[in-house]
């Protein structure tokens, strides 16, 4: 991950916990993992993030959260 120096984030391997894996898919009403949440709000899976990145939307959403690229 290209990230700023003081970026707070967390990750959870849902494959280690089948109950969590099923629950997160029900919670988001999204059938696949990985799933990305920004400030607790579901954004989408990797396909959605790729599309957002390609059109510049991901950078804009991250900027709103105070995350700026280190590149």
UniProtKB/TrEMBL annotation:
Q: Which UniProt keywords apply?
A: Redox-active center
Q: Any one cellular component term from GO for this entry?
A: mitochondrial matrix
What Pfam families does its record include? Answer: Glutaredoxin (PF00462)
Domain Glutaredoxin per the UniProt entry, residue ranges: 8-43
Q: Which SUPFAM superfamilies match?
A: Thioredoxin-like
Give the matching InterPro entries.
Glutaredoxin (IPR002109), Monothiol_GRX-rel (IPR004480), Thioredoxin-like_sf (IPR036249)
> What is this protein's record name?
Glutaredoxin domain-containing protein
């Amino acid at each position: 991950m290209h990230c700023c120096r003081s970026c707070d984030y967390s990750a959870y391997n849902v494959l280690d916990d089948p109950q969590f894996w099923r629950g997160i898919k029900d919670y988001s009403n999204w059938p696949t993992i990985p799933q990305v949440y920004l400030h607790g709000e579901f954004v989408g899976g990797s396909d959605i993030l790729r599309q957002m990145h390609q059109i510049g939307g991901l950078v804009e959403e991250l900027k709103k959260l105070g995350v700026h690229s280190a590149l």
